[in-house]
């Protein structure tokens, strides 16, 4: 039954991506891509973050984790180019998950 739990985390992440207007239709290929980009734990966490930019403090509150732990996860994802981190005036950093890229309908 563990495979259902893993699939659930990626399904939740797919549902999160579908909050964007262009969305990301569920498919086996999409799940394989998500598994390459995110660990199961990361997928479950990212599935909970807001669409709009947010701080590590907000993520920590959502995830029920200490802020330092949330920042470590967010910075690791940003370091891999999965999240965007944008420093703000005053030293705060906001994070956001970029929307999925639509599939190209034309060949190069």
Q: Main beta sheet, described?
A: 3 strands, antiparallel
Q: Report the mean per-residue pLDDT as an integer.
A: 85
Low-confidence stretches: 1-6, 104-108
Number of strands: 3
| Helix/strand class | mainly alpha
Order of helices and strands: HHHEHHEE
Number of helices: 5
Q: Report strand %.
A: 5-15%
- From the spread of the alpha carbons, the general shape counts as globular
Strands of the biggest beta sheet: in what spatial order? 1-3-2
Helix fraction, binned, reads: 40-55%
Distance from first to last alpha carbon: 43 Å
Which radius of gyration do the C-alpha atoms yield?
15 Å
Question: Care to give the gist of this entry?
Answer:
With 108 residues, this protein is mainly alpha-helical. The protein has helices at 2-17, 28-37, 40-46, 56-63, 67-79, and strands spanning 54-55, 84-87, 93-96. It has a three-stranded antiparallel sheet.
Could you explain the architecture of this structure?
Helix content is 50%, strand content 9%. The chain has 5 helices and 3 strands. It has helices at residues 2-17, 28-37, 40-46, 56-63, 67-79; strands at residues 54-55, 84-87, 93-96. The protein starts with a helix and ends in a 12-residue tail after the last strand. The relative contact order is 0.15.
